[in-house]
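re: that chain from earlier
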Amino acid sequence: MRARTVPVEEAVGMVLPHDITEIRPGEFKGAAFRKGHIIRPEDVSHLKRLGKDHIYVLEMEPDEAHEDEAALRLARAVAGEGVTFSEEVREGKVTFTAAREGLFKVDTEALYRINLLGEIALTTRHGNFWVKKGEKLAGGRAIPLVVKKGLLEEVERIASESPGVLRVLPRKMERAGLVITGNEVYYGRIKDAFAPVMIPKLEAYGLSVSGPVFVPDDRARIREAIEGLLAEGVDLVLVTGGMSVDPDDVTRLAIADLGPEPFTYGAPVLPGNMFLVAYLGEKALLGVPACGMYHGVTILDLVLPRVLAGEVLTRKEIAALGHGGYCLHCKECRFPVCPFGRG
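^ sequence. v structure.
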């Protein structure tokens, strides 16, 4: 790139090679003059008010790309399944949005490698959270006005090695079953408090819910209830209660009797240390401890979206939740707009 600086008074009739931004606090932020605008005599005073006593005249080299072209090449490289963007680039920026409802996934290693290049910026929301169609996911741009095409080729190479730098995975499960354990509920000693919490939570993801099926703290009865729901064709079974180490708490043992693989009991998340996640083929089993009954947000809210998108969570994925897995129990809960689960 060869750049020549020209005083604005001498720029009349020349073409702007980039947008010029104007900011009026509380009123407006955007392009006062668009790339390609032919400067008119009446524009000179406006440019001066924006602090532009000089403008650039650029002469591009064959191996260089303008910021708008760079932003589009970045977008086309990193936007995977379920992610869309506008081809109309503004001020060298591109915004990514969800093309469908689902689980937002970010290849953080690829993201890091792209940003390490230095002249390209790709900024995202946290991954592994559920998003609605049309929600904003990320923004990208070239930082300088002109970028070497070789750098863009490196971005494209990094992206080609990823399953998708940015993706929105669709929900793969349609039906959920709910088993509520506990002698105190089964025999009518207390009123159940799990179903009023669990059923709306499941339905919010578009699932149809079978149950609840109430069973006592009996290992065989719990196993039979789970098997019954699976026989009905549910994709996911939530089993609530009986997840601690008390003598009467046999839920995890009943689930283990089914022979699931993988089987993970215990999680470094508060609330939710005694959570369980297991799989029978493509069917998922989630053991929800008592915290799910009286805490609005628990480990279930971190795991459920990923399970619904078809992810198989092993001990490795559960262990990774320890970073960011401590809920602050704010007086006014703003989840997911908060640190919980954002490792």
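The chain has a mean pLDDT of 93.
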